[in-house]
Amino acid sequence: MVLFITGICPKDCFYCPVSDERRADITYANERKVICDRDVLDEALQMDALGTGITGGEPLIRKEKVVHYIRLLKERFGSQHHIHLYTSMTPDRDTLQELAEAGLDEIRFHPPVNIWDKLEETGYANSIRHANDLGMKTGIEIPSVKGAEVIGIFANNLGCFLNLNELEFSDTNSDAMKKLGYGLADDMSNAVAGSKEYALEAVNKCDRIHFCSSSYKDAVQLRKRLLRIAENTARSFDEIGEEGTIYYGHIECVNNDQEAVYEELKKIEVPVDMMEMTSNGIDISWWILEDIAEYIRKPDRKLCIIERYPFEEGLIVEKIPL
Ligand code: SF4
Q: What 3-state class would DSSP assign to 108?
């Protein structure tokens, strides 16, 4: 689950992806506006969340809220519910201790680009050392732009990990990025030209480095969206796959005699909630169709298992004849 604590942030990064609607002191659990604790717990329960990423804006300008939600989530879902926090601030040891004691598992620092070449002299070095000492998994998360290599060396010296995100155009940052001379890598994504190359330069400088490409992020977001849609729209006999597509069996009635076929299926005790008549045949649970295929097969019936996107008339990904 993504717990967006507040849209307020004292920094002014040129690549900031936070949308105009979110730039207010409002909390969201995924897309759900949070009015009370119940909203956070309900959202986590609904998606069966294994962990929570706390973001913003700058979450630590609402530190009490952050501590409160860490405690709430750990109390309700147990210590195995993994919680990580992004911050662009440099919390002192007392603050980090308070977060660690509440149950924070991991912290990712986000230093602004204009100080990357002198990070050792800033509060980030001490915050990272304290977070490491306190036993939290500690890292740096930044966009992959010029200078990422220097951060790779810095992260390695401090023994923390480095996450690099491929820089992307968004509605909110495109004007600023264009003014700074950034352009699109291709016509297929929002990725910025050259961002991946800066990550490649950083790779050899850091032992614990991870690069998240724009296309990977898109794929993950698409999968999440498909899963949410599938959960809301799947029929009782559709099976939802791990990628958010649905699987079901289909009997295509070449002679348009689906009503007769439907009656025949009822006679062999296929439950009515396990099938549905369509304009060209019968949709049916795939595993029932597999079981009965040999009994109902006829030259004017085509049997198959279908995988498709979970929309009405959704794109068919695969059709396996039986
Ligand atoms: S620190 Fe994060 S939220 Fe704040 S301006 Fe930078 S990118 Fe945006």
A: strand
Write out pLDDT tens, residues 152-179. 999 999 999 999 999 999 888 999 999 9
Confidence at residue 170, expressed as pLDDT on a 0 to 100 scale: 87
Residue ending a domain, choose from 208, 229, 250: 229
189 φ/ψ angles, rounded to the nearest 5 degrees: -145, 180
3-state secondary structure (DSSP) of residue 53: strand
What is the rounded distance in angstroms from the CA atom of residue 322 to the CA atom of residue 27? Answer: 50
Pocket mutation for ligand 1, best pick of 6, 11, 108 (most atoms within 8 Å of C-beta): 11
pLDDT at 190: 86
State the pLDDT at residue 319.
Answer: 92
pTM flag (> 0.85): no
Q: Are residues 99 and 207 in the same domain?
A: yes
Say whether both 104 and 68 belong to one domain: yes
**Regions of the chain short of the pLDDT cut 50:** none
Ligand 1 pocket test: pick from 5, 8, 12, 18 the residue with the most ligand atoms within 8 Å of its Cβ: 18
Domain match, 198 and 246 both: no
Task: Residue 241: give the domain boundaries.
Answer: 236-321
Provide the total of helices (H) and of strands (E) in the chain, helices listed first.
10, 15
Cβ proximity of 209 and 202 under 8 Å: yes
Quick one: three-class SS letters along 274-318? HEEECCCEEEECHHHHHHHHHHHCCCCEEEEEEEECCCCCCCEEE
Q: CB of 16 closer than 6 A to ligand 1?
A: yes
